Amino acid sequence: MTNGSEGGGTRGGPPRPRRPVLVDPAGDWHAGGVDPALRAQVAHATAAALVSGGRASSDPAVLARLLALVETEGLDVVAALWADSPADTLPGALWRLYVLREWVRRDPAVIADRYRQGVEAVPVEGVVAGVASPPGPVDVREAVDAVLSGVYTGDLATALDRAAAFCRVLATGAALDADHLDLVDPRGADRQTRGASSLLRTADELTHAGTLWRSGRLE
Asked: Which of 143, 127, 136 is nearest to 108 (CA)?
């Protein structure tokens, strides 16, 4: 995802556009001025500490703080830690999960609409993603919270698989929406199509990360 969706729209701020550009969890967030080797070391250490600490705790307050990491620390801070990490690493996988959650948190109505369109075409992916049917804004937000919670309270590989399925459903919905949009807004349709492709790439990356975790090779 590039930088969440366009014009996230907070209370008192500008309204969200009706068709925000799909974001890409791989992102273009790069922390400059820091030695790459040191940055990688910090990324791996912080990701491992969060996951091990979260999985070792049964305190609901700890889980709530972990889920709200982006809200409390800011997306730029989390990006500085993890955004440059390869997709086949633990910090790279966590980055994609947190940006996905932030995107859904900012635009739940749009995400729910895309999800409804996509899940009809790929129902099996919808089963894996585990979103209520028919999904509303609250449902998609709860679903991504449940996915991220699974990193700390359940099987991490399953959480990654669910996130991948969620992305595939959204990609399908975005592609269908692009087909409808093509007649009235070709440029918008092109952005939607590229966003769908980014989501499919992210889905594949998350699936691969889950495979690595199961074999003990996601570090």
From this structure: 136
* Joined tokens for residue 92: 């790279």
60 SS3 class: helix
Three-state helix/strand/coil letters over 93-131: HHHHHHHHHHHHHHCHHHHHHHHHHHHHHCHHHHHHHCC
Cα gap 112→138, rounded to integer Å: 9
**Cβ(142)–Cβ(156) below 8 Å:** no
Angle at 116 between CA 125 and CA 196, to 5 degrees: 65
| 194 CB-contact burial (10 Å; exposed 0-12 / middle 13-18 / buried 19+) | middle
Cis amide bond preceding 86, omega within 30:
no
Residue 148 near residue 97 (C-beta atoms within 8 A):
yes
Mean pLDDT by 10 residues, the chain (219 residues): 39 39 49 73 95 95 95 93 96 96 95 94 95 94 96 96 97 89 82 92 97 97
Domain boundaries, the chain: 36-214
Considering only CA atoms, which of 36, 32, 125, 41 is closest in space to residue 90?
41
Q: Mention every residue, 6+ apart, whose C-beta is less than 8 A from residue 20.
A: 5, 6, 7, 107, 110
Taking only Cα atoms into account, the Rg of the chain, rounded to an integer number of angstroms, comes to: 17
Q: Give CA torsion, residues 95, 100, 102, 107, to 10 deg.
A: 160
- Residue labelled with tokens 């804004």: 137
